[in-house]
Each structure stands twice: as structure tokens, then as C-alpha cells.
Backbone:
């Protein structure tokens, strides 16, 4: 019998819905196997606790407003209440007992629906599939991750945004966007590709519509998105074919069809009959007063999405070379303890060579376990490790002791679906050892177990954890980011960084300062529990994501240095 | 007394209210040195409710008569409270009474067709349950946390199922799904919760 078959049969047994043949099979296993019995008890416990939980949720109006039993008219409760008040007026000698009874009366409220539920299911809220849909909608924010936007910024070249810069690969926010200069490539969720040239003021109204006040845009529209439109003050341009460009100013809009066909709906003309069709190679100007004139001049001379991406790839390849050169320089930094990259040419190797060469006591090479090779942030295949498979990790050994520590890595996280999502953890968690991970709510976590001073009593032991604010949510899913954390002994502070910028800074209290950090055997992107040495059961903490670079320095790197590392390593 | 209890149990009333009223009655009318002991006893019995449920259900898997037997057991425990020696293992004592009540219930169900464990297995289960680690409260806390990770509709489905004493067939009809489908869904949810609880217990066992 497989474990799953077994637990299915246990459920059937407890549901009172098991065939005689299955019952006998299960009984045979229960008789001979103590572990199967343990599983049976666990399943029973779960059922009993769920029953209690169900009873309490029925009584808690915040959980189940519609399902609260009408306790006020329940004669049993009335009975209890009367007796309670009766007890209260008796002699003081009885007060102690009355108190106990009140406590029991309180527990009665818990017990009521357990038994009532057993005999009167019709009292309970009816299970209504539609109601479930409603409740899902109501509670969506806390239960199901969501993101906002109709498009992502898939590339940019010398782009300057008004206000906060938008990162490549990120979701474009709603509302008006102001690109002051440069070129950007937008990918709408309808499949429409748009290159926008600054200066441009526009908003993405839906996956099928962009409103443009000013600027130039060239859109490539796949079959699935025919009907995509760009709205301007002078009228609308509706795509019927594949590719067109617009140049929008305050008083007119020039339209040019690169490929296929578009429909023009000049301002003020609402009937379809009033619209104009424009074929490949043709161009017109729409005036804000509704006039339309054919033009021959306008070759809008804006690159299309394909050409734009080619250019971007070229510039990215230049950046890759710069990053490689910077990595080469970093090797000899005497503070560098470990620096791992995944060599795409060593295709089947399960060894990660430690590139650090600037000191004697560097970390060992890494041993890859279970993690699989995937594409790195530069688009090179086989140059990153995917840790999402259970058990994935890179094992390493770090000798020596260090006054302070700096860690950074480039990761692409799929989701934070475990409570602890590992980045770098020593085996177990002994004194002076660092643990670096991300919580399921997106906060970065760093701790060094403080040594126990000889004079300190056990209870004054302080194990301080340095959290950042949440830095990750699902909108960053699948995007490459650089995480860094600095444990600075001299400045007595811990700083977390996201993409080269400090996101939190916290002082290390004197009593939990560990001047010396020790590491020893450790794992990247997973945790080796102490009990795992003998017990096959382990908690799942591997990072559900991809990493293509990891580095560790003895001592604290400055914010400027972190920022430089980010800039030269940023693929976007 | 016993017959009125029985009637109340059948009519959907429940044990602890009776316990409460009887204890109040005793406290008010026969003030004596026993009252402090009574209070302790009541406390122990209240604490023991979850383990008792577990115990009786383990011996009567999938049998909805189990809740009746639990009530019957509570009644019997209260009647026999004078026999309990303070300081000895309350749980073991209460379980022994429960065991007797389960057997008693079987005798009354004249030739019930229900499947039941062999005597040998039943003895083993009964012994092991007495020794089962006492971490129901931690498990309950873990369960609550784990419930949060479920989708709202899954949570609601579980709560509806566990608040009801319907058979699986009746329940699936009420929620408008096939018995097979409901079984698979519930199994998946329970397994998810069970795994989550074990992990939480492990996780809370360590330092961070």
C-alpha cells in the first residue's frame, strides 16, 4: 500500500465511508505497523481539532456571521445563565466554586455546537458555491496575491521618467506616465508590443488601449489583439492589421501604417461609417478639428519592437562583458571569502568553483545538490541554478572567523511559499553563526546567534533577528533582483539592501553583538537542520527561485561598494 | 437522574450544562469540604474533553454514534467521580471508563453491521492512546495558523464538513458535488493541513 493510498483509506475509515475489503486491508496494516497507527492517531487528532475549530468558528461572528446559532433562544444556554446568576448571589464561600463554574459555563459555549451540530445539521449555514465566490472576492487581498497593471516594461534605452524611475521587467503603473526622453518597449498583456519614444505622455488604459497626449509610438499587434487602439486628442487609431506608428502632438496626430491596415476615427465622428481605412505604407494627419489630410512626408522613423530588442540585446551583451570584467577584478579583493558564479561551459559539473583568490582562508568550492541549471540574468543558458526542486542546495564549508560579514546574491524568486525561504544558512544554528533568509511576507531576515557570555544566565540570552520591511511581493516574481546584507561590527548595525539601495538599517544591541562570525559547513538556498543528520524528515526551506551569483566578504562593504556591485551586475 | 440525562442527550442537549447545573446544585445546597475537590475534578474533566473525543473516535472510527458515547462517558465519569483518587492519572481513569462505554454501546447495538477493529487491535490502540503525547493544544494552535494558508472556500468547506454530522453522501449532496469529488478534496486539504501542522511543530521546536 502506498502512503497516499493509506492516508486515503484512513480518511475513508474516519468518514465512515470505507468498503469492507479496504477496511480489512487497513486493519491488517494497523495491526502490524506502529507507524500506520501513529498516522491513524494524527488523522484522528486533526479531525477532532477541526471539529472544535468548526464549532468555534460557528460561534465567532467575525468568522461566520451567517452561521451563528441562535444561542439566545437555546434553552440549555438559558439554563446555564440562570444558574450562573443564582450561584453569584450565594455566600462568599461559594465564590471560588462559582468562578470555576463560570469558567465551565464559558467552555459550554464551545461545546454546544459540537453536539448540536451532530444532531441538527439543518441549523448550519448551507454550503452555497456562489457564496463561496463572494467570500473569495471579499477576502482576496489577504488570501490571494494580486498585482496591478496592464503591461510590463520589457526594455528601455536611456529612458528618463518623470518621477520615480520604472525598472525594466517591472509592471507599469496605472495612470499617466511621463517619459521625458529615451526609448522604452512596453509589452501589453494582450500581446501588443509598443515602442514609445520620449518625450511622451501616455497612459495604459487596458491591455487593448493606450491614451496618448504627446509622443511617438510604434505598435505591433498580434492577431489575438486586433482592435487595439491608441486614443489621441485628434481621434482614435484602431488596429486591424499588424503594425503602425503614431506621432501625437497637442493639435494633430500623424499615423503611418507599417504593415497591414488601420482604421481611423477622427475626433467628433462616432459613426463607423465616418471612419477611414488606411493601408500599408499610407500615412495621414488627423487634426484636432476633425480634418484629415494625406501626407507623404511622414516616415515616422521609429524603430519597431523587434529592432529595439536587438539593440537592447547588443547593449546587454556589452554590459555582460563589463560585469565579467568587474567580477575578474573582484577576485583578488582580500575581503572576498566566497564568490560563486555558474559556469555555462561546464555543463554537467556539479561543482561551483570559488572564484575568490585574494586571501588564504577562502571558502571551499560549492557542491550542487538537486538544483538544476537554467538561464541566468544575462540570458545565457545553463548559467544559473534553479533551487525550486525540494532538497536543492549548494553545500560549502567556510573556514576561519570574521569580524563582520557582507553577503550578496542575485536571485529570481518564483514565490515565497515557505515560512523561511533560504538564502544562506549555516548547518543548525550555533553561536556566532549567521542565518540569512526571506520570510513568507517578503521581509529579509538576518541573524547571528550571539555568544553566551560566561556571566550571563540562560534567561538573559538574546537572539536578535534583523528584519527589513517587506521588500518582495508577487509583482517581483520572475524578476532578477540583487539582495545584500551587511553585518557591521564596528558601526554596530545591520543593513539590508535591495538592488543596491539600503532598505533597512538597524543598530545591533550591545548584548547581542557578536564581534566574531564563524560559519563552517553551510548551505546556499537551503538549510541543513541539525536533526537531519539522522532523521530523514526535514522542513522545506529551499528557495523557490533561481540564483546565478553569490558572494561573501569578511567585514562590511560600504553602501557605495554595494551600489557599484549592483550597477555593474544589473542586466536590465 | 440517568434517564433524564439520557433523554437530554437524545434531544440534542449536552453534558456539560448538566454537569454545570448539578455541580451548582451541590455547591449551593451541600456545602462541604468536597467542593474544592469537585472544582478540581470539573477542571480535569473539562481539560480531558479533547483527548476523550480522540479516544472514543479512535475506537469507533467513522461512527457518528461516537458523540453519543462521549456524552454517555462524561455522564458515567461524573457519576463515578467519588471513585477517582486525586493525584492519580485522570486521563487513564477516564479512558478506562470510555473504553467500557464503547463496549457497552456495541452490546446495545444488536448485531450492528458496522465494521469494527479486532479485539487485538482495539487493545493496542487503547493502550497507545493513553501514552500518546499530550500536545493537542500546540496542535490546535498550529492548525489555526495552517488554516490561514488555505483558500477561503476550502476553509469554509472544511468548517461546514466538521460542523455537520451528515454522512459523506448527505454532505456531498448538500454542497452539490459528487461523493468522489468531495472525498478527494477533503483528503487533499487534510493532508495539506497535517503536513503543515507537523512542520509548524518542528519549526516552533527550534530557536528562531
Residues:
Amino acid at each position: 500500500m502506498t502512503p497516499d493510498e493509506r492516508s486515503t483509506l484512513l480518511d475513508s475509515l474516519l468518514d465512515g465511508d470505507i468498503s469492507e475489503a479496504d477496511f480489512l486491508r487497513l486493519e491488517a496494516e494497523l495491526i502490524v505497523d506502529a507507524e500506520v497507527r501513529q498516522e491513524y492517531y494524527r488523522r484522528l487528532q486533526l479531525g477532532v481539532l477541526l471539529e472544535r475549530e468548526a464549532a468555534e468558528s460557528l460561534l465567532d461572528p467575525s468568522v461566520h456571521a451567517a452561521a451563528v446559532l441562535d444561542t439566545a433562544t437555546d434553552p440549555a444556554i438559558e439554563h446555564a445563565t440562570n444558574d450562573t446568576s443564582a450561584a453569584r448571589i450565594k455566600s462568599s464561600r461559594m465564590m471560588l466554586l462559582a468562578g470555576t463554574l463560570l469558567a465551565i459555563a464559558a467552555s459550554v459555549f464551545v461545546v454546544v455546537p459540537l453536539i448540536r451540530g451532530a444532531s441538527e445539521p439543518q441549523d448550519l449555514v448551507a454550503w452555497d458555491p456562489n457564496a463561496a465566490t463572494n467570500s473569495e472576492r471579499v477576502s482576496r487581498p489577504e488570501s490571494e496575491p494580486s498585482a496591478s497593471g496592464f503591461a510590463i516594461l520589457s526594455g528601455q534605452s536611456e529612458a528618463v521618467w518623470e518621477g520615480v524611475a520604472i525598472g525594466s521587467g517591472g509592471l507599469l503603473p496605472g495612470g499617466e506616465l511621463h517619459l521625458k526622453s529615451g526609448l522604452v518597449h512596453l509589452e501589453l498583456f494582450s500581446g501588443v508590443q509598443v515602442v514609445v519614444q520620449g518625450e511622451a505622455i501616455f497612459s495604459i488604459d487596458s491591455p487593448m488601449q493606450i491614451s496618448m497626449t504627446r509622443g511617438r509610438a510604434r505598435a505591433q499587434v498580434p492577431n489575438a489583439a486586433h482592435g487595439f487602439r491608441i486614443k489621441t486628442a485628434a481621434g482614435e487609431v484602431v488596429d486591424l492589421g499588424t503594425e503602425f506608428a503614431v506621432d501625437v502632438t497637442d493639435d494633430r496626430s500623424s499615423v503611418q501604417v507599417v504593415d497591414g491596415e488601420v482604421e481611423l476615427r477622427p475626433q467628433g465622428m462616432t459613426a463607423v461609417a465616418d471612419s477611414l481605412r488606411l493601408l500599408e505604407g499610407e500615412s495621414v494627419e488627423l487634426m484636432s478639428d476633425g480634418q484629415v489630410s494625406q501626407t507623404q512626408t511622414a516616415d515616422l522613423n521609429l524603430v519597431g519592437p523587434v529592432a529595439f530588442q536587438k539593440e537592447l540585446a547588443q547593449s546587454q551583451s556589452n554590459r555582460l562583458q563589463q560585469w565579467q570584467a568587474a567580477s575578474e577584478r573582484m577576485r583578488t579583493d582580500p575581503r572576498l571569502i566566497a564568490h560563486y558564479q555558474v559556469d555555462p561551459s561546464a555543463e554537467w559539473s556539479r561543482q561551483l568553483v570559488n572564484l575568490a583568490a585574494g586571501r588564504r582562508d577562502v571558502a571551499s568550492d560549492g557542491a550542487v545538490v538537486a538544483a538544476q541549471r537554467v538561464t541566468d540574468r544575462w540570458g545565457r543558458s545553463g548559467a544559473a541554478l534553479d533551487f525550486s526542486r525540494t532538497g536543492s542546495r549548494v553545500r560549502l564549508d567556510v573556514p576561519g572567523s570574521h569580524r563582520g560579514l557582507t553577503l550578496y546574491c542575485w536571485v529570481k524568486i518564483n514565490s515565497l511559499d515557505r515560512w523561511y525561504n533560504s538564502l544562506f544558512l549555516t548547518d543548525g544554528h550555533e553561536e556566532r553563526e549567521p542565518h540569512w533568509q526571506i520570510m513568507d511576507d517578503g521581509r529579509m531576515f538576518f541573524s547571528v546567534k550571539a555568544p553566551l557570555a560566561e556571566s550571563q544566565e540562560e534567561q538573559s540570552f538574546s537572539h536578535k533577528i534583523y528584519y527589513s520591511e517587506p521588500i518582495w511581493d508577487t509583482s517581483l516574481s520572475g524578476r532578477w533582483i540583487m539582495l545584500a546584507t551587511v553585518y557591521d561590527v564596528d558601526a554596530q548595525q545591520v543593513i539590508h539592501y535591495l538592488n543596491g539601495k539600503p532598505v533597512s538599517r538597524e543598530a545591533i544591541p550591545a548584548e547581542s553583538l557578536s564581534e566574531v562570525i564563524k560559519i563552517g559547513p553551510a548551505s546556499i538556498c537551503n538549510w541543513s537542520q541539525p536533526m537531519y543528520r539522522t532523521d530523514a524528515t526535514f522542513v522545506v526551506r529551499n528557495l523557490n527561485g533561481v540564483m546565478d551569483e553569490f558572494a561573501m566578504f569578511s567585514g562590511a562593504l560600504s553602501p557605495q561598494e554595494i551600489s557599484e556591485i549592483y550597477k555593474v551586475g544589473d542586466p536590465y | 437522574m440517568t434517564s433524564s440525562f439520557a433523554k437530554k442527550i437524545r434531544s440534542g442537549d449536552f453534558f456539560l450544562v448538566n454537569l454545570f447545573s448539578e455541580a451548582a446544585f451541590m455547591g449551593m445546597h451541600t456545602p462541604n469540604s468536597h467542593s474544592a475537590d469537585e472544582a478540581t475534578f470539573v477542571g480535569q474533566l473539562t481539560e480531558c474533553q479533547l483527548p476523550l473525543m480522540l479516544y472514543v473516535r479512535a475506537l469507533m472510527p467513522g461512527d457518528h454514534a461516537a458523540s453519543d458515547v462521549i456524552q454517555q462517558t462524561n455522564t458515567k465519569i461524573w457519576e463515578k467521580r467519588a471513585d477517582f483518587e486525586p493525584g492519580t492519572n485522570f486521563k487513564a481513569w477516564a479512558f478506562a471508563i470510555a473504553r467500557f462505554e464503547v463496549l457497552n454501546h456495541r452490546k446495545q447495538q444488536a448485531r450492528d453491521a458496522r465494521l469494527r477493529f479486532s479485539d487485538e487491535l482495539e487493545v493496542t490502540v487503547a493502550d497507545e492512546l493513553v501514552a500518546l503525547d499530550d500536545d493537542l493544544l500546540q496542535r490546535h494552535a498550529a492548525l489555526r495558523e495552517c488554516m490561514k494558508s488555505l483558500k477561503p472556500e476550502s476553509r469554509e468547506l472544511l468548517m461546514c464538513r466538521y460542523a455537520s454530522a451528515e454522512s459523506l453522501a448527505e454532505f456531498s449532496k448538500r454542497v452539490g458535488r459528487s461523493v468522489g469529488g468531495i472525498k478527494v478534496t477533503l483528503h487533499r486539504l487534510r493532508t495539506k493541513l497535517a503536513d503543515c501542522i507537523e512542520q509548524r511543530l518542528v519549526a516552533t521546536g527550534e530557536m528562531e
Remarks:
- Chain A touches chain B through 93 residues (CB under 8 Å).
- Confidence is low (pLDDT under 50) at residues 61-143, 454-461, 531-535 of chain A.
- Residues 502 and 559 of chain A are 7 Å apart (CA to CA).
- Chain A has nine helices and 28 strands.
